[in-house]
Design goal:
257 residues; TIM Barrel; eight-stranded parallel beta barrel; 36% helix; globular
Length: 257
C-alpha cells in the first residue's frame, strides 16, 4: 500500500484543517517546498497537494507554490482544490503535475469529467468527500443528498483513474479512518480507492492494509505526520514500499500513475 503525505496549501503556507474548517487552520510550515523535500527525503513515492484557497474560490490560487514543488522533487504529484474548468486542469498537467483531483465538478458537471478522462487518460482522479455518507462540495462548505457510493460508481464508469475517499468527520481529527465506509466504497467500484482522513497510528495503517485486497490501494496521511504521531519512515516499513501503480497489469491491478 502506498503512503502519500499530504501538503495542504493556504495563502502559500503548509497548513492542516480540522474537519475542513478554514477557521481552524494550523500553520505547520511557511515553506511548502521545504516540506515536500523533507517527505521525499524520508521515502515518499508520491505527494498529495491541496490548494485550499482554490477549493474555496473555485479556481487554482496557489499555482506558484505547486509549480515550485513540482520542480523541486522527483516523485509524482497529485493536486486538487478548485479544479472546475478544463483550462485549469490542462495548465497543472502542463507544468508537470502527474494527476489532478476533481471534486465539485464530479457532482455538478459529470460531462466535464468524462471529457477530461478521454483527453487525459489515467491523469484524472476524483475526490469524494463525505459527511455521513453524503457528498460534500465546494471546499466542504456544502453537503448534498447524494450518496458517496453513487457518485463513485458513476465516476468509475466515466473512466477516472482512482477515487480518493475522505470522511470529513475524521479528517484532521486523528481518530482513525472510517473503515466501514472505505470498504463500502471499494466494493462499489472497480477502480482503486485511496483512503484519506483520520489516520493516526501504525495500527490504523495496518487496518487499512487489510482492505488492500478489496481495492483500497493507497492512503493519504496529513496531520499525523506533522504532529509526529506517525513517522513516515516507520509507516513505510510497516506497510511496504508502495508504488502499487507500477505492478504489471497482468496481475489484475488497475493502473494508477
Amino acid at each position: 500500500m502506498e503512503i502519500i503525505p499530504a501538503i495542504d496549501i493556504l495563502e502559500g503556507r503548509c497548513v492542516r484543517l480540522y474537519q475542513g474548517d478554514y477557521a481552524r487552520a494550523q500553520i505547520y510550515n511557511q515553506d511548502p517546498v521545504a516540506v515536500a523535500k523533507e517527505w521525499v527525503a524520508q521515502g515518499a513515492t508520491r505527494l498529495h497537494l491541496v490548494d485550499l484557497d482554490g477549493a474555496k474560490k473555485g479556481e487554482p490560487v496557489n499555482r506558484k507554490a505547486i509549480a515550485a514543488i513540482v520542480n523541486a522533487v522527483d516523485v509524482p504529484i497529485q493536486v486538487g482544490g478548485g479544479l472546475r474548468a478544463r483550462a485549469a486542469v490542462a495548465d497543472l498537467l502542463a507544468i508537470g503535475v502527474q494527476q489532478v483531483i476533481l471534486g465539485t465538478v464530479a457532482v455538478e458537471q459529470p460531462q466535464l469529467v468524462a471529457q477530461l478522462c478521454a483527453e487525459f487518460p489515467q491523469q484524472i482522479v476524483v475526490g469524494i468527500d463525505a459527511r455521513d455518507g453524503k457528498v460534500a462540495t465546494r471546499g466542504w462548505l456544502e453537503t448534498t443528498e447524494i450518496l458517496a457510493t453513487e457518485i463513485g460508481q458513476q465516476m468509475a464508469k466515466l473512466g477516472v483513474a482512482a477515487i480518493i475517499y475522505t470522511d470529513i468527520h475524521r479528517d484532521g481529527t486523528l481518530k482513525g479512518p472510517n473503515l466501514a465506509a472505505l470498504r463500502e466504497m471499494a466494493q462499489a467500484v472497480d477502480i482503486p480507492v485511496i483512503a484519506s482522513g483520520g489516520v493516526s497510528s501504525i495500527t490504523d495503517l495496518l487496518s487499512l492494509l487489510a482492505l488492500e485486497p478489496q481495492g483500497v490501494r493507497s492512503v493519504i496521511i496529513g496531520r499525523a505526520l506533522y504532529t509526529g504521531d506517525i513517522s513516515l519512515k516507520e509507516a513505510l516499513q510497516a506497510v511496504g514500499p508502495g508504488r502499487w501503480q507500477d505492478v504489471p497489469p497482468d496481475l489484475g491491478f488497475s493502473a494508477f500513475g
